[in-house]
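Hey, I'm writing a tutorial for new members on how sequence and structure tokens pair up, and I'd like a real worked example in the thread rather than a made-up one. If someone can provide the structure for the chain below, I'll link this post from the tutorial.
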Amino acid sequence: MHTGFVFNRAFKPELLVYDSNYQNEQGLSSAFQAHLQDVLSILDKHFSGMSIIEVGCGKGTFLEMLQASGYNVTGLDPTYEGVNPAVIKKYFLPETGLKADAIVLRHVLEHVQNPYEFLLNIKRANGGNGKVYIEVPCFDWICKKRAWFDVFYEHVNYFRLRDFYRLFRDVTAAGNFFGGQYLYVLADLESLQEPMCERVDEVSFPQDFLQPFNRWVSEIRFRQQSNKSPVVVWGGASKGVIFSLFMQNAGVDIDYVVDINPAKQGMFLPATGLKVSSPSEMFSKVPTGSDVFVMNGNYLPEIISMTRGKFNCMAVDYE
């Protein structure tokens, strides 16, 4: 593709539906709340006093943080479930009739099929100008960590910081945070341009990208044979779905999947059919000392504290 973006060429949008049943809320975690505070600090530095439209505001957690900080903010998201009058359950289009000084796009751009066209439509809807804050997963981190479980169908695109320097002529600030997993960019919408691929933009997965997968298969098999204790996956979002599916395909049994999001508890993971348990349900059924495989190392200290050190918690994205 001439833009130089990393994307899933085989993606079919009709296979995904984003409605009120879509559950991807991370704000229940104290570690993620700390991340949102980092995001808010960045916006306070660059967007202070500005009106904001948050495109893809999800369940409204960050929008409410913006409101509490005094921002005049409107959210747009068809998956919204709450009653906040500042949220409109629609997409941001010119016919929406809304404009703001700044647009916030947190974990939206990786889900859309043509990021440049999507941003161009947002620019048009906002009158051709305004500031924009974009936050997406970092493809360089995925490759560095060999995070094979971080490649999944919901994410059509995978971004590197240099992609945004080709996408905007005027980048105000950019960087990585959340342990390097995410990258962010602040730019001027008026400077949006169609990016063109250069030789330096060519990329491929590391040859040993699946080496950690093979290591975890061997490790879990060994532990199952040695201590006969249940295997627990902590995290019922996309990482947990992919990790559990690949483990099952390799003949490794996963006994429990745990998530702190009540909306996920009692539900079942796609593909594997594994039931999602609450932490308290898992505590009552799993013997002390059992292995708990944490899908995101950023949450490891929080989970160890929550489980009071009773389990052997291991982050699967640690080298």
